[in-house]
Write a structure and sequence with these properties.
binds adenosine-5'-triphosphate, 19 helices, UDP-N-acetylmuramoyl-L-alanine:D-glutamate ligase, eight-stranded parallel beta barrel, binds 2-(4-methyl-thiazol-5-yl)-ethanol, alpha/beta, Hyethyz_kinase, magnesium, TIM Barrel, ATP-binding, binds magnesium ion
Length: 538
């Protein structure tokens, strides 16, 4: 008798024989998957006659027993009972959990598909005698479900459900994420799906097509297995974030590296920022290219040191933004995201949320209003694209910046009189089930300041150009260098240049020109130890 509390959910295969490639059978695919590290199998064969279904179930069960992997039957409680399977999985429209449990008894695994918080609360109320595990989803759109009743929730939606499980103390209930999960998105979604307290992540992922539709199901499984086992769910190479090692000497080195590598800074940005951003990139030894030509995105992303600045200020079509994001994510090249006016209107909220669900960013930069909204801490509705009242208390902004950094596993920057930087990458460390080694409040955060420079907030696109500055420093990085230090260097450089420019300008018009002069001058020669802005722990 197997112990259902010890089941390994890490790689869960759900079958679908409608997608088998030529020359394979349901059984041959399951066998290849079992040989290469699948830990749980669910027989899900919709529209199959009972007799055929049972024939498959018996064969698959034999294979699973050989590998000591539990077999779960989808929907058909009768079939599960008839063949003495290890468990059943039901959806919201299937037999109620209490009846399923009554039929299968206490020792079998009962799984439930869950998509909404109230469903999680319902299972929490049933207690450990109800549901053993949940399938959370769907994460992304898939072709597997003909008429999906739910819309994709993205990693953020899964995180909310994990959070509800955590806050309702459903500790016994295990979780797998399901829907559109493939090798190119698994590492990042695994690291992003986490409860708010950082302590609960999914126990595994469920896949259908990546194995069932593969002409090399064994290899496909092995690939998934390796991704899950790597325990380092980071997508960019440079993540060695050692805050202690940050110093003016390192800033100097990073400037040299940027000069040497002259990164291509691909801007997809608002029209107000176009010229300003291009000139800032040039002042910082980088090559700007402003492009919304979708067909060249992949090529651009493959240029050495290419970096994408994705600014949603005045907006290119969503498809275009998404394909740029996909290109840079696939190439493993960094994206700096500036969600301008994040939730100022419902259109912006939808667009920015979509990008956050489908991409992974090295850095997310926003003003106080944007960062507070991203962290769900904004009380008042945002006004336009500017930062609004930034006099709000620093501790709230630090908290919000940490939440954004943690939630999206990036370095987050909140701008204003004092800039706040938080590193939520946790060096790529993340564990299935137990989440991150750090809880959000413990992640490192810093502040960069240089007194009050009101004119910085009085020219348009000054925040956008900080985005450009960050992209230049991040783009210059080589493997094994620190993302956090690159961002800190950029923020301190920009603030110091603002200070210098404000002492030289005659008003906000000449300030912009003076700011580019100052960036140019400081980047070319001035030793960072003389930069005026201070960096300290927040
Ligand atoms: N009062 C201030 N004192 C010092 N620096 C400031 C002040 N206000 C803004 N800044 C700096 O100006 C830049 C823009 O910050 P802000 O918060 O205004 O961004 P933003 O609203 O996104 O700008 P935009 O949308 O116009 O590009 C940042 O580098 C920030 O550090
Ligand atoms: C003014 C303005 N409108 C959309 S984007 C932008 C630049 C500052 O974000
Ligand atoms: Mg802005």
């Amino acid at each position: 008798m197997f112990d259902k509390t010890k089941v390994d959910y890490s790689l869960y295969l759900v079958t679908d024989s409608t997608m088998l490639p030529p020359g394979t059978t349901l059984e041959s695919q399951v066998y290849a998957a079992l040989q290469n590290g699948v830990t749980l199998v669910q027989l899900r064969e919709k529209d199959t006659d009972t007799k055929i279904f049972i024939q498959h179930a018996v064969k698959v069960q034999k294979l699973c027993r050989e590998f000591k992997v539990p077999l779960i039957i989808n929907d058909r409680v009768d079939v599960a009972l008839a063949i003495d399977a290890d468990g059943v999985h039901v959806g919201q429209g299937d037999m109620p959990i209490s009846m399923v449990r009554k039929l299968v008894g206490p020792d079998k695994i009962v799984g439930w598909s869950v998509g909404y918080e109230h469903e999680v609360q319902e299972l929490a109320a049933m207690g450990p005698q109800g549901v053993d595990y949940v399938g959370l989803g769907m994460v992304f759109p898939t072709n597997t479900k003909k008429n999906p009743k739910k819309s994709p929730m993205g990693p953020r939606g899964v995180s909310k459900l994990l959070d509800t499980l955590q806050t309702s103390n459903a500790t016994w209930c295990r979780t797998v994420a399901i829907g559109g999960l493939h090798p190119d998105n698994i590492p990042r979604v695994l690291s992003q799906m986490c409860s708010n307290d950082g302590k609960r992540s999914v126990d595994g992922i469920a896949v259908v097509s990546d194995i069932m539709a593969s002409s090399e199901a064994g290899k496909a499984t092995k690939r998934l297995r390796n991704l899950i086992d790597s325990k380092n769910y980071q997508y960019v190479d440079f993540v060695v974030n050692n805050p202690e090692s940050h110093s003016p000497a390192l800033e100097k080195e990073y400037i040299q590296v940027t000069t040497l590598n002259s990164p291509l800074i691909h801007h997809i940005t608002n029209k107000v920022h176009y010229n300003f951003g291009a000139n800032v990139a040039l002042a910082l030894g980088s090559s700007p290219i402003m492009s919304e030509i979708e067909s060249e995105f992949v090529e651009l992303s493959q240029v050495p040191h290419a970096t994408l600045l994705l600014n949603t200020g005045s907006v290119a079509p969503l498809e275009s933004l998404t394909s740029a994001m996909r290109a840079y994510n696939s190439a493993g090249r960094p994206i700096v995201f500036d969600p301008v006016g994040f939730s100022a209107t419902s259109v912006r909220l939808q667009l920015n949320s979509h990008l956050l669900a489908y991409g992974q960013f090295a850095c997310i930069k926003g003003n106080a209003g944007e960062i507070l909204s991203l962290a769900d801490l904004n009380t008042g509705k945002m006004r336009g694209v500017d930062s609004g009242d930034n006099g709000s208390n620093l501790s709230l902004l630090v908290e919000a910046t940490k939440i954004v950094a943690f939630r999206y596993r990036c370095v987050a920057v909140c701008t204003g009189k004092i800039d706040v930087v938080a590193d939520g990458t946790c060096e790529g460390k993340f564990k299935l089930s137990s989440g991150s080694p750090l809880i959000p409040s413990q992640i490192p955060a810093y502040k960069v300041e240089c007194g009050d420079i009101p004119v910085m907030g009085r020219i348009t696109a000054s925040g956008c150009s900080l985005g450009t500055t960050i992209a230049c420093l991040v783009g210059g990085l080589s493997k094994d260098q620190s993302l956090l230090s690159a961002v800190l260097t950029a923020v301190r450089l920009y603030k110091s240049a603002g200070y210098l420019a404000s002492s030289r300008c005659e008003g906000s018009g000449s300030f912009q020109v003076r700011l580019i002069d100052a960036l140019d001058q400081m980047f070319q020669g001035e030793d960072p130890q003389y930069w005026k802005a201070t960096l300290s722990s927040a």
